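Intended use. Records such as the 5-oxoprolinase entry shown here are meant for training and evaluating sequence-to-structure methods. They are not intended to support clinical decisions.
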Amino acid sequence: MTTTDQKFHFSIDRGGTFTDIFCRLPDGTEVVRKLLSEDPTHYPDAPTEGIRQLLEEYDTSSQTYPRGQPVATQRIGSIRMGTTVATNALLERNGAKMALLITKGFQDALEIGNQSRPDIFDLTCAKPGLLYEKVVPIDERIVLQEYTPAAWSQQYESRKGVTGESVLIVQRPNLPKIRNDLVKLRDQGITSLAICLIHAYVYGEHETMIGELAASLQCFEHIALSHRINPMVKLVSRGHTTAAAAYLTPQITHYLTSFQQGFDEDLKKVPLTFMKSDGGLAPVHDFGGHQAILSGPAGGVVGYAKTSYTAPTPVIGFDMGGTSTDVSRYAGSLEHVFETVTAGVAIQAPQLDIHTVAAGGGSRLFLERGLFRVGPESSRAHPGPVCYRKNGYLAVTDANVVLGRVIPKYFPSIFGPDEDEPLDVEGARRAFEALTALPEANGRSADELAYGFLQVANEAMCRPIRNLTQMKGYDITTHILACFGGAGPQHCCFMAKALGMKKVLVHKYGGILSAYGLSMADAVHEEQEPAAETYMGHLRVSGEERLQHLADRAVAALVQQGHAKESVVVERYLNLRYQGTDNSIMIREEPGKSFDQLFRAVYEREFGFVLEGRDILIDDYRVRSIVPGSTPSIPPPPPNKGAPPAIDTTRAYFENGWEEVPVYKSEDLEPGHTIQGPSIIVQPISTVVLEVGCSAFVTASGNLKISIGSSEEKPVEEDEEIKEDPVQLSIFGHRFMSIAEQCGRVLQRTAISVNMKERLDFSCALFTKNGGLVANAPHIPVHLGAMERAVSFQVDYWNSEGREGIKEGEVLVSNHPQLAGGSHLPDITVITPVFYEGEIIFFVASRGHHGDIGGISPGSMPPHSTRLEDEGAMIVAFKLVRDGKFQEEGITEILQAPGKLPGNSGTRNLRDNLSDLRAQVAANNAGIRLLKELVQTYGLRHVQAYMGFIQKNAENSVRLMLKEFARKNGARAHAIDYMDDGSPIELTVTIDPETGSATFDFNGTGHQVRANHNAPPAVTYSAVIYSLRSLVGQEIPLNQGCLAPIRFIIPERSLLNPSAEAGVVGGNVLTSQRVVDVVLKAFKACAASQGCMNNLTFGDEKFGYYETIAGGAGAGSTWDGQHGIHTHCTNTRITDPEILERRYPVLLREFSIRPNSGGKGAHPGGNGVIRELEPLRPLTMSILSERRTLHPYGMNGGEDGACGRNLLIQKDGTVVNIGGRCSGSMDVGERLRIETPGGGGYGPVPSNDAPPLKKTRQL
């Protein structure tokens, strides 16, 4: 068909390596072109050159298109583009020189973030660098009026915010001072500004004032105001998003300016649009950096959604590139998320729900510690895989080449010094042959090793697909796999088999599907406003008016772009959440249904339940106006023509070994042709590998519809010995950890409390039938070893003489630290047996911190408790579920039992306790379902055998580390450190250098104390397993095998092995950190980190709140300590300042990095933080902390970190040091200021003339 305007229409995906161009010619013919994105010797800009080439080749008019001159545009009908310019600038940190202007007291809010570290076992605590170069604290303050004392309304001016909430203007910005600050920024070379003030999403006037002042100076290229960039609550996320806009938009503007200069002056008449992260097209002037993060991948999602979906069968998109793989899901509408983290930056904007895994064609291959490992390191384009002939790294592409699954003679000869040689098969083979000498090769040939790596790579890419579907309750086997990207078709059949999927679709434009998707994308404009209302079963008149106002603006924006008003479709949304929760769900309006009906349906599908009796709150009004793009029609299937003639045969390696298989070229295939696997189909820019048992049918549109054969594992005979296989070991490692991770995601989704849903204070794990830890998702380190003790205790307890045993349909619960393997009472463990053919085969368990379980103080973290009974409800063994029924009455009685003791209370939040316990049961059930699927796939004996093998692998890794330490440092290590009360924790490690066994002897540790920082043995086991895993320094399975080489000696009635009635609530959160300090000190690993969790609770008879606060990380031999980050035994998040002030009657006066608190050294320790809170009504505030007397140690000549301080600032300004543990009532006008410890320094302080050392490690 011809184009209606007889012009050329271009859709371009400018990627990091290649630029793909899809062009519809005036006569309707479709052509494609692929160019290198960077080729400065031939052209300055790839998209411009691609357009020029196609016009020159296909324009039959007299117009010429000479290279080096502006391209004539009169024959161009439209240009659509997706680009990775913003993504690459973010990843490489090469955006604009920008500064952040933020409310005073929060100048470090973006650096602290949510205070968690990306990798809990990375002692360097590496995190991505900041986007801004300068930060300017703005002395201004807006306060939400709801909780403020009545007198404040007389003292401060009140204004109505956009949400309808009233705010008080406590401090207006000092514009003359700010002007001076802006001039200084200009003089320092700052060209872009991000302005983010607290509560600006409600009242943005202060941001507007500063923005106008900055604009009047006419020296800043871009000024981003947070309430315009993204008017949503959460200071940190909105700040990151605003910073991203200021950092990236100038880069995009520069690129667009350069692009436009490649055309003549009539380009302004050509519709030029860009793909946003939400899958919609926007004009140049409406394309900000924060909207462009997923610009490239979004086109691919639109492409497969428009070409692969036929209702009602959902589709999984699988886009495999060189360095990473993107997966997504489509079931009739684009699925959006509204907060994601990219390159360490939280982006709060509508984005397609795309999950990325660091596994692609360029992912490097490692054979180490008994495992096959794929990625996350990448060989990248330079030097690339070994077969690229640039002295590169062994990678996934090399495996495909060596195994004949990529055929060099059908691949461009662009390699070698003169870029004219084919892929180097022999070089890649030699690299694999070098691996055969390693013990992990286990006698495998080079070919078998290569195939093993492919199996492991495919499992790594299956993992996010499982997470995307199974964790949301979708059956993965009912989906079609839509495969695209240059490397995807080589792996899609293999992966579909592993996932149990029956159909795969490879589009004829699969290698450039992002560009093709752009040609069909919708034009979109969104408008959104925050709200603070209760949904009362229908929209209020004011709500209807707000939505209509937003719709009018959104439609007008599209009309202004040249679209007809009648072509615009309007979608209306409310962002809803239950009162008392922070997770909002964006609900699209549907005819005949109310918003609350839709919300409850989505909530129940996602989380498995609804919250009865709770109000539904409106957080945002949103409108999305759309001009729908084209959707290609799907012609009827052609008649079957049988097999086409093959153009060649080749030897390729499949599941049964080497086979001689036919080779086909896609351009020779006709609709109706059917190709049986194993075989290879060569496409112009990719290769399709048809596995054994698969068949491909060529559709009327020229796409490949592949039917997947069965992938049954060969059954293991009952008497056949199951031998350990490194490939299977790696695959099972992925599967076990994936199940534990999915349990965690279910728990996060289904929990109610802030502790579990927001702070993520929980852990999920899998265990053998005897209670041995198999896989623990990396959630909270202090839970790592403790849960194994809890599970094994329950197994022994219920199976002991005279007890009833454990039956199917039952769920166990416990929390007692000394008697039942608990950590402290607020951490409640829910344990579910996995039955198979009437026998227990595994256990699944989840441990979560409950915000209150009774005791003498709100939050159940009393600073001054001396007996366990003062700390809340105690559960040694109870069946939470019997015969499939939740025992609400029984568990309620247990949780209320502390109230029978003088001075104690039962739980103060029973509703949340019960909801969170149900969430833990649901998380366990998810694990059971997935474990049973694993057993059905591989057989019980096989799964149980690999549970044992995976534990043995972890054991061997720890033994190797211990032997290496003994070789370098001797067979004995010793360290001692002290709690603030002077109690010593002493450790002597004795290592057998031959076997790698070790004794961890804690003799010399102080007596148990009449306080609450006694720690049950399970806490010590957790601290040691965390330390050992961190010392190994490489990815190894996290399970009980890590402790198998260790014999513990922990004296009874000591600080680390107290009596059953001793108080222990502080042992889990304080002493655990000191145990880690002592272990790392003995192994000379690094200086001490803050050594504390800084536990703060506050509340009254109506509510309780709990948080832990970050501090400084210790420095090491090659790294500086990080500032303001959680270390070692915890990694919980902290509540966003705006959420905190919106939900609780407190004012957060300051949350910043504490300067000069890190110890000096060749590598200085990280600084702690300052957190200052003011109650807005009388509240009980309690602090439980350490390192207030004794400093975090420096190492190897580095200085100690600063001690922390807890200060009460009284109404008259008097400052009182309240010590490390304090609880009391605070009145309005008083402030609690917590200054957390810094980390120790490493190495002597360098002299002034010494060369600078390597700075803080960043991702």
